[in-house]
Design brief:
- The protein is of the alpha+beta class and 287 residues long.
- It has one domain (43-279): Beta Barrel (Porin).
- It has six helices and ten strands.
- Strands 1-2-3-4-5-8-9-10 form an eight-stranded antiparallel β-barrel. Strands 6-7 form a two-stranded antiparallel ribbon.
- The model is unreliable at 1-5 and 22-33 (pLDDT under 50).
């Protein structure tokens, strides 16, 4: 006859109930982690760079400083929304290029990029500050922003706003058919980053994001040369066609209608940032 210890069935039932309770607690804890929600404020410093008619090969000589701040709301350990603003500086020169054609063209510019916008962040891993099990993750980001720019160029020691000069005939639209461009434009930020919980409520992040724009005028270069007859003065003439500064017969090699820029490809810019953020509310988990 099979021997059954006294109270075996009661002990087995107790073990079963304790196991169910344990797994229920684990399940609830995991659900709580998945539903964690909190807010942060942060700031960042970094660099910005531009890609376009003067920098078609992704050179880095035009890299300039950038900085910004943001508010981030995390809905789950995987999804967050970030609202922020930034100020960056970009610029480039044809003289940076190894292309003989660009060096002869001799264009140059600089501008600020003042941006505001929002981004969605998608964490690859669960991320919960203050939780040692979920303290770091890479992430993807996608958003929409608006930015302001104002390209300038230097001539004889002074900086001039290129839009006000109309280097491609924007001030003579009736004759050239070229309209003035808008200096407030939308952009689509796409990027990748990595966030790491330091201690307490502090998080360290790094991110690189590329801004696709809908303008070809970050550098004030888009289409064709205009006739020098349309230049209103010496400054207008030289900034429309600065190749005159490197070869006296340049106006003969750049007739009206000659190619000045690439009118097909839009300009873009990139931001690389290192940020520090602080959770301004306690991490709240549902009961």
């Amino acid at each position: 006859m099979l021997f059954v210890p006294k109270n075996f069935s009661k002990n087995l039932l107790l073990i079963f109930l304790l196991s169910c309770l344990f797994f229920q607690v684990e399940s609830n804890a995991q659900k709580a982690v998945d539903r964690v929600s909190y807010q942060e404020i942060g700031g960042w410093i970094g660099v910005s760079n531009y890609y376009g008619d003067l920098n078609p090969n992704f050179g880095v000589k035009g890299t300039r400083p950038a900085f910004g701040g943001y508010f981030r709301h995390t809905f789950t350990p995987y999804i967050a929304v970030k609202l922020g603003g930034s100020l960056g500086f970009i610029g480039y020169k044809d003289s940076y290029s190894n292309s003989a054609w660009q060096q002869t063209r001799n264009l140059a510019f600089r501008t600020h990029i003042a941006e505001i916008g929002g981004q969605l962040e998608f964490n690859f891993l669960r991320y919960v500050p203050t939780n040692k099990n979920y303290y770091a993750t890479p992430y993807l980001t996608l958003g929409l922003s608006m930015f302001h720019f104002s390209p300038k160029a230097k001539y004889e020691g002074e900086w001039y706003k290129l839009k006000d000069i109309g280097t491609e005939g924007q001030l003579q639209t009736d004759l050239t058919g070229v309209k003035p461009y808008k200096t407030v434009q939308p952009a689509i930020p796409v990027g990748i980053g990595f966030k790491y919980w330091l201690k307490g409520k502090w998080t360290l992040s790094t991110e690189i994001s590329y801004r696709f724009t809908f303008t070809d005028y970050l550098d004030d270069v888009h289409g064709d040369y205009i006739s020098q007859v349309l230049a209103t003065d010496e400054v207008s003439s030289m900034l429309s066609d600065p190749s005159q500064l490197v070869q006296p017969d340049a106006p003969l090699s750049n007739p009206a209608g000659g190619q000045r820029g690439d009118s097909v490809t839009k300009d873009s810019y990139l931001l690389f940032q290192i940020s520090l953020s602080y959770a301004i509310f306690k991490v709240k988990c549902p009961n």
